[in-house]
Each structure stands twice: as C-alpha cells, then as structure tokens.
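Before surveying the methods themselves, we first show a specimen of the format, giving the amino acid sequence and backbone structure tokens:

:::
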Amino acid sequence: MTHQATTHPLDDALALQARDNGVFVGHTTQAYWNMVGPFGGITAASMLQAVMQHPQLLGEPISLTVNFAGAVMEGDFTIRANPVRTNRSTQHWMLTLEQPGPDGQMMVATTATVVTAVRRETWSVSDCPMPKVPDASHFERAAPDFPAQWLNAYDMRPVTGNFPKAWDGGGDASLSQLWVRDMPERSLDFVSLAAASDLFFPRIWLRRAKRVPIGTVSITTYFHATGAQLAQTGSSYLFAQAQAQELRNGFFDQTAQLWNAEGLMLATSNQIVYYKE
C-alpha cells in the first residue's frame, strides 16, 4: 500500500513562489483565517519566509518587526524582500506585502524589517527563567471561544489567564500562561515560531473582561535560539506567557516569552495594539 504525502497546513499557508529580484507570490488560506482576514501571526511568518527563501540570506533570524498598515484580503499577495545592507555578521532587510486595491493598483498592506545574523559561541545567561509549572499533560486543550478558523491550528492548554468566565467588565489581570504546539504536530522552525509569537488573545479582553474591537499595529519578535535548537525542540509543546504593561488612550502593549519544555528561551516579543471602546 502506498501513502500519499500531505502538506502541513502551516507549510501550505507559507508556500511562496519566487519571482525575479526578491519578489515572492503567496496566497491566503482558510486554515489560518481570523475574523476578517488572516491570523496576524501567519502574515508575520510569511514575511519571514520570504527572507528564509531568499538566495542572498546570511545567517539566521534574530529580529522580525511587522507593521500592519492595512487589511490583508483573501487571495494572492506579493512580498518584496530587499537586503538593504549586508555586514560581516549581520544582514538588514526591508519587506512589503502588497495586494491589488479597488482600482487594481498594488497597495501596501504590511511592511516589515528583518535582521539576520551569523551567531558565534559566547558567554551566555538567561535572566528570565521559565516559570515552574506542571507539564502540558496536566492541562486540557481549550476549546475555541469564538469563531476563528486559525484557533484550530493550535493545541492550546491554558495554565492561567484563560478567557474570563463572564464578560462583565470585571477583569483584574492581563497575564496568560499556556502550553501550545501546532495542530497537527509539526517540527518547530523560525517561521512557525514567528507565527506562535502572535497567538495570544488581546490583553484588553482579559484585563477588562470585555470584548472590544482590536487590531495589532506592530509586533517585534526576537529570536534567541538557533535553528539547531529549534530542530531539537521538534514538535514538543512550548510554554508561552504574555502580559500587558499599559493600556491607555486607544492602544495597549503586550510583552511575551516562549520557552521549550526544557526551559530554553526561544523567543520574546513585543507588540502595540489598537483598541476601540
């Protein structure tokens, strides 16, 4: 009996066709669809994917900043990846994601910058150890709490800070902690880690226990692990936590950390999010 190979939904969503001069064409997929567009993490991962597939790539990612200038619509999109400067150990990239506007002219929906680098063995220390919590087997997978298709792409097991039991405006904390991995299972790499860095629910929903309209404006993810360390992590659960620091005048921030099950810090991220009363 023969078995036909299947593509993981994440790899399908991140499939890019290379054109000339650092131009890549992709297509949105329903597996990572949010309420009115693609899950922001998959857009961020697509931008990074263009860099990872670029023939001029130097080293591995250490920083990814994605600015959501406008909505990404269903259908084809074009990513332009330009290595604006390459040094001995670091490389700096500028990217845009474009789609046709109402008049047929290409419009920028997302911009990004990426820094890649050649890492070298040096003195290292972690000043932010992983919290001591029971492993993922002690927690149940959370059922999606609202109709967004991308939630089915992850096995999320809340430890603390899940959705409020009542949306009554009585929230008092924004901290969330959870175990998470791709669903179906997939070996970890930089693009999947970039997507996972944006999987947290809006901090204001927890802090207020009230669902208000939100939209991420900008997210920066810092990669602390090497590609080899991500490969060693494999498809195991990651421990992830996120918390707001300030919610004021229509915008709030979020700081997040992701470790593997052995306590190795893999990535940290910060984002600024718009909210509306």
